[in-house]
Amino acid sequence: MSLDLYVDGPRWRAHLRSTTAAYPGVVPVAKGNGYGFGLVSLARRAEWLGCAAVAVGTYREVSAVLQRFSGDIVVLEPWRPFTADVPYDERVIHTLGRAEDVAALAATAPSSRVILEGLTSMRRHGFSAPDLAAARRAARGLRVEGHALHLPLGRSYAAEVETWLAAAPFPRWYLSHVSKDELDVLRLAHPELELRPRVGTELWLGDRGCLSVTSTVLDSHQVARGERVGYRQRPRTRDGVVLVMAGGTAHGIGLAAPTPATSARRRAAALARGGLDAAGRSLSPYVVAGRQRWFVEPPHMQVSLIFVPADVEAPAVGAAVEVRVRFTTTQFDAVHLS
Ligand SMILES: *Cc1c(COP(=O)(O)O)cnc(C)c1O
To answer: What does the CA dihedral 84, 85, 88, 91 come to, rounded to 10 degrees?
Structure first.
């Protein structure tokens, strides 16, 4: 039984190449579940692309990349004195965002390579602009590789970037969530600066057309209206077929991330994609005859029960069914790269 990701290899590689070309100096981000592909696969891909550096999310992710990628590894998680198992490797570049951490890292691992991060409108990690300039002066004993900014999504923050460039000058900047167009404008205005965009989603998942996800039909049962099914033994309200599909909570099936939708209309749309309807039913990501089908009950650990009404032809046991998933929250059983 299996929840599979199929990748049209030639098309994916062409997209990786063109995106890399569109973002000179790009630092591919390989973190978490590796955007569905896995960290190991992304590390190999970054090596193949010839990138000078890769960014990982946490220190725990460094080892998967270290063995497969020969360039630098930027750790996005800020270094803290209490972080366990930090690899103090010549190829690892640490991120610092607090004055006390600058002093502590200089004492713990002198001449470590570091990036100093600014606290943008995101308000996640980093120094204020005056503190960033001061941190650079205080970072004696460390090798400062660049300054970094991580910006919010949704609109242009180019003006904010400009403010930082002026307030804490440095020749190399690592930028997150700055669009290609904004980068072009910044490069024109500052030809002396090296701007290194950190890109994940747009690189790995930017061409959805070359990615498809399928699940196998593992079992199929005719059910009549009133029959009880599943752990919860809720009676069916219609005749139809219950399909047992590969993919459960362990794969991230049925996980809904909190919706960022602000309007009632967008919330309703989010609900229709994966939420509960008024009767407490939940729409599954499994697509049969062109439509996502209802879960019979919450997904099990490795399988999900879905309902196909009697007037729709149900796929046979062994058939592959399209699944609409979020790649960053899905654990695939296998990734098939052509
Ligand atoms: C995850 C992350 C990125 C990459 O984000 P995408 O939206 O996947 O491109 C870049 N910078 C930082 C600091 C991140 O945490």
So the answer is: -110
What's the mean pLDDT in 106-133?
Answer: 96
Residue nearest to atom 12 of ligand 1 (CA): 176
CA–CA separation, 66 and 63 (whole Å):
5
The ligand 1 atom nearest the CA atom of 35: 8
The torsion of the CA quartet 290, 296, 297, 300, rounded to 10 degrees, works out to -70
Rg (CA), the chain: 24
Contacts of 292 (CB under 8 A, 6+ apart): 273, 283, 284, 285, 286, 324
**What integer pLDDT is reported at residue 255 of this predicted model?**
83
CB 39 within 8 A of CB 64: yes
Contact 233, 284 (CB under 8 A): no
CB of 136 within 6 A of ligand 1: the answer is no
Alpha-carbon span 295 to 292, nearest angstrom: 9
Q: Which tens digits make up the pLDDT trace of 5-18? A: 999 999 999 999 99
Point out the ligand 1 atom lying closest to the alpha carbon of residue 57.
Answer: 15
Helix axes 9-22, 39-49, angle to 10 degrees: 60
- HSE at residue 272, side-chain half, CA atoms within 13 A, is 7
End-to-end CA distance of the chain: 21
